[in-house]
Amino acid sequence: MLTGGPLDVLTGDYLAELTMLILGRDRLKNPDLGYAKTFLRQLEEGLGLAHERGVRLVTNAGGLNPAGLADAVRTLAAKVGVPVSVAHVEGDDLTARENGALTANAYLGGAGITACLRAGADVVVTGRVTDAALVSGPAAWWFDWAPEDHDRLAGAVVAGHVLECGTQATGGNYSFFTAHDVRRPGFPLAEISSDGSAVITKHPGTGGVVSAGTVTAQLLYETQGVRYLGPDVTARLDTVRLGDDGADRVRISGVRGEQPPPTLKVGVTRIGGWRNEVVFVLTGLDIEAKADLVRSQLAETLEDVADVAWTLARTDHADADTEETASALLRLVVRDPSPDRVGRALTSAAVELALASYPGFHVTTPPGPAQPYGVFASTFAPATEVPHTAVLPDGTHLPIPAPPLPALPRKPAAFPAGSLEPGALSAPPAFEARGSGGGAPEGVGGAAPAGSGAEPRETVRAPLGALAGARSGDKGGDANIGVWTESAPAWHWLRDTLTVDRFQALLPETRGLAVQRHELPNLRALNFTVTGILGDGVASGHRFDPQAKALGEWLRARHLDIPVDLLPPAQGPAPVPAPEGTGP
Fold first, then answer.
1. Three-state secondary structure call for residue 280
2. Residues 325-377 pLDDT 10s
3. Cβ distance 291 to 353 under 8 Å?
4. What is the pTM of this model?
């Protein structure tokens, strides 16, 4: 990013829910730690270059100890002979208020970052701020925005949300990846204007792609509803408009903002107990009977364990031509407050069945000791009670006042013309028009309802992903799945077809859980939030795909009846260029 083209501010997002737990355990071992040590290794290579080019650095790598990282940056700067001023933001640590917590940190906004930059800081280190604050804070400094400039701040927050996961905005983890060369995607950047609008692009010559689709996918990532609540502003995602601004350039405009809520989200991690697991390999015939035998043989051993979960993944194929593809996996996950109940004695008992169980008995790993696991929960604290503080380069502690209490939200503006025209995305990959291979019931999605007066449409059984992209992720114990289409007709069909009931029919694991659906017409998208599917969060969950990163791709793989006229022509994957110097 420093060498590829012009840049004013370089941001680094190092924190996630799981990261806070890891840093909390680091801090238990050494109170001087609690920050992302990898940042210092990267900074040693790039600090001089950033200084030469006048690029400010803003990062949340401070984690649980922003003051400690700020001191470490000063030490590093002196070591490499680069004269930089360093500031940091603190006040997010509320661990003392949460009884028994390993960590408890409020999600601060960008105002502290703005204050540090206004005081002349070259490097700003923060603890737990919102991911988007790393962009909105510098934007407010650059354009001298006031806290009441809600529309401008909301635009910068949306741009920050697009940038926060790096190459996820330039083709990484993208549903339609086969239409592009995404082997080495470049990092995204935002060209922000004084009105809060922005162009998402990347440095010339870098790989990947910036398109309406890649930007839409990231806009839908880990959001919950049309109001994107933040400490500085509430951004209205239903007002976001995307426009084509040239090759690898997507303009974001029209974002409206409202006053932020009076409370801040607080992420709390705790040590939940101890866990262990054993994976048994079941090969060939009688898979279900083999699994039943193992369960019954271990039933007595597991009687006193607090939480026992068995899952059987039928990865086996009939008449398979390799042993691996002839095998299924039986996974045992155990959790308990005591490490002894789920420790080496339990896993050894499982392995000691090796000569007395099903034919072909083996496991994927040797017996292991129990490991601690964490749980994540979120709560709220009044913004006025969180001591948000900017510690300026000269050591001055500057309190950052909480925004005033919100007034009634205003209605979003009508969407003006100029949003991206249908067809701007690359066509999705080809699909197989199989028979009733799962998914929604036959007849769902395409034919007009009886008595509607509309002409029935010809349909074909196909995966939802032949028409729609998706991006999914985790928020504590909840998961979100954003689904979008590239054309207006496909969006109208998606909006009418993918109801909550149909969503739960396509993803049976969501049945019995609370599912909320939100419409974002200007993005031609639906956003679903599934409450509780991930239990106590990534660090404790035993669910396959504990962060729900592939939940959207499972949804796209489910079959239902899709109108033929909506489907794109079948096409293969994009050609990958041959390395230089190879043959024709």
1. strand
2. 999 999 999 999 999 999 999 999 999 999 999 999 999 988 889 998 888 88
3. no
4. 0.87
Q: What is the pLDDT of residue 540?
A: 61
Instruction: Fill in the DSSP letter of residue 388.
Output: -
Q: Which class for 353: exposed (0-12), middle (13-18), buried (19 or more C-beta within 10 A)?
A: middle
Say if residues 273 and 374 touch (Cβ distance below 8 Å): no
DSSP state letters, 361-374: -EESS-----EEEE
Residue 372, φ and ψ in degrees, nearest 5: -70, 150
What six digits make up the tokens of 400? 């950052």
**What one-character DSSP code corresponds to residue 40?**
H
As a whole number of angstroms, the distance between CA 58 and CA 9 comes to: 7
Q: What's the chain's Rg over C-alpha atoms?
A: 26
The Cα 133–Cα 233 span in angstroms is 10
- Tell me how far apart the alpha carbons of residues 483 and 404 are, in angstroms, rounded to a whole number: 35
Encode 518-556: b = buried (16+ Cβ within 10 Å), e = exposed. bebebbbbbbbbbbebbbbbbbbbbbeebbbeebbbbbb
Q: 384 to each of 249, 272, 399, 584, how far by Cα in Å?
A: 40, 30, 11, 67
DSSP class per residue in 11-30:
EE----HHHHHHHHHHHHH-
In whole angstroms, what is the distance from residue 449 CA to residue 458 CA?
A: 13
Phi and psi at residue 56, to the nearest 5°: -80, 145
CB 250 within 8 A of CB 208: no
* Neighbour order of strands in the sheet with 468-475: 468-475, 478-485, 525-530, 515-520
For residue 418, give the nearest of 257, 252, 256 by alpha carbon: 252
User: Hey, what amino acid is at 460?
Assistant: V
Pinpoint the alpha helices (H) of 352-412: none
DSSP class of residue 557? Answer: H
Quote the crossing angle between the two packed helices 150-163 and 133-143, to the nearest 10°. Answer: 140
- The 10s digit of each residue's pLDDT in 426-449 is 223 332 222 222 333 334 344 444
Sign of the torsion angle spanned by Cα atoms 40, 41, 42, 43 = positive
| Residue in this structure with the two tokens 């009634």, named with its chain if needed | 408
What are the structure tokens assigned to 347, written together? Answer: 């896993």
Beta-bridge mates of residue 283: 327
Both tokens assigned to 490: 């496909």
Write out residues in the chain with pLDDT < 70, as ranges.
406-455, 537-542, 570-584
Question: What burial class does residue 412 get, using C-beta atoms within 10 Å of its C-beta: 0-12 exposed, 13-18 middle, 19+ buried?
Answer: middle
Q: In this structure, are residues 86 and 393 in contact, taking their beta carbons and an 8 Å threshold? A: yes
In angstroms, the Cα distances linking 92 to 100, 401, 431, 443 are: 17, 13, 48, 53
Report d(CA 472, CA 525) in Å as an integer: 13
Taken in order 105, 109, 115, 118, the sign of the CA dihedral is: positive
